[in-house]
Amino acid sequence: MAKTTIAFPFLLLFFTSLTLTLTPTVAEDSVYPTIPGTQDTGCSLANEVPPPIRREVYADGRIYDISHRITTQMPAFGKVEGIGQYLWLPVSIKNGSRSNNSEMKLGSHTGTHVDAPSHFYDNYLDAGYDVDTLDLEVLNGPALLVDVPRDKNITAEVMESLNIPKGVRRVLFRTLNTDRKLMFKKEFDSSYVGFMEDGARWLVQNTDIKLVGIDYLSAAAYVHGLEAHLEFLESREVILVEGLKLDDVPAGLYNVHCLHLRLLGAEGSPTRCILIK
After folding, report:
1. Are 202 and 159 in contact (CB under 8 A)?
2. pTM, whole model, 2 decimals?
3. How confident is the model at residue 5 (pLDDT cuts 50, 70, 90)?
4. Which of 65, 50, 152 shows the shortest CA–CA distance to 112?
5. Cα(202)–Cα(196) distance, integer angstroms
6. Of 153, 182, 201, nearest to 246 (Cα)?
7. CA 176/CA 156 separation, integer angstroms
8. Which residues share a beta bridge with 241?
9. Are 167 and 207 in contact (CB under 8 A)?
10. 30-57 per-position pLDDT tens digit
11. Which of 83, 135, 243, 268 satisfies CB 3.0 to 4.6 Å to 112 for a cystine?
């Protein structure tokens, strides 16, 4: 009898401790602290699912994804802390729901995005020139990826030196921003390369370019942020695609495809852009 009295609580304590060790802890207000699917949950069932493959190139090198993955650490214009948390999971299977349903809060000019004419013209905003009015034919079609001289902003002189042929309507400008990996740094860097006012004016007046793509958060250099944007957007014919991911993509001719969200009333929108050989 004495042995039975001592062994029972010992076994109960042992199995209770084992159960607590094997049971994963789940927070009541689950959010995405990292990219979903990449963290170790400590649950044996989850470990049976293979990790997802995140790609930049598809179809054996024929398709390039040139849009940046949105993360909490990516830069936001004028901010030192990046975009911060943008995704919440208020409804989740872990918390008893039948499905996972996220909510997000993003600036309309987050990551790879487009600018509408109303971004810098208040009268265009009042008139309704939002991203829903942007021409999809301009955003999709043959495009030229060019390398800009690395030691300067894009001036009229630089534009002339690129010798972009007449008839080319879509040009993606790769600059020192790509070499410096500025889009992968959380803190905004005002020394990024962009168009100066005279460079934007030269492009509008002397080329057939209607889509201007660039590799940081603004097509306009920081010192000419207002002036260059006004030159680009005044005609309501030029579409700016900013924050492109152009590293490891050979210069040359591609088909570009950019599709943004149809946000009624918005002067900008995140977009997904790809290049196809």
Report:
1. yes
2. 0.83
3. very low
4. 65
5. 10
6. 182
7. 18
8. 114, 213
9. no
10. 444 455 554 555 554 556 999 999 999 9
11. 243
User: Long-range contacts: 38-43, Cβ < 8 Å, 24+?
Assistant: none
Task: Read off the pLDDT of residues 48-102 as tens digits, 9 standing for 90 and up.
Answer: 999 999 999 999 999 999 999 999 999 999 999 999 999 999 999 999 999 999 9
d(CA 216, CA 195): 11
Amino acid at 91: V
Question: Torsion over CA of 137, 115, 54 and 179, rounded to 10 degrees?
Answer: 110
Rounded CA-CA distance 203/206 in Å is 5
User: What is the residue whose two structure tokens read 């607590």?
Assistant: 20
What does the pLDDT average to over 191-199? 98
DSSP, collapsed to helix, strand or coil, labels residue 82 as coil
And the tokens for 97?
């729901």
What is the DSSP-derived secondary structure letter of residue 13?
A: H
Q: Give Dmax over CA atoms of the chain in angstroms.
A: 101
Helix (H, G, I), strand (E, B) or coil at 114: strand
Q: How confident is the model at residue 220 (pLDDT cuts 50, 70, 90)?
A: very high
Asked whether the beta carbons of 72 and 85 are under 8 A apart, the reply is yes
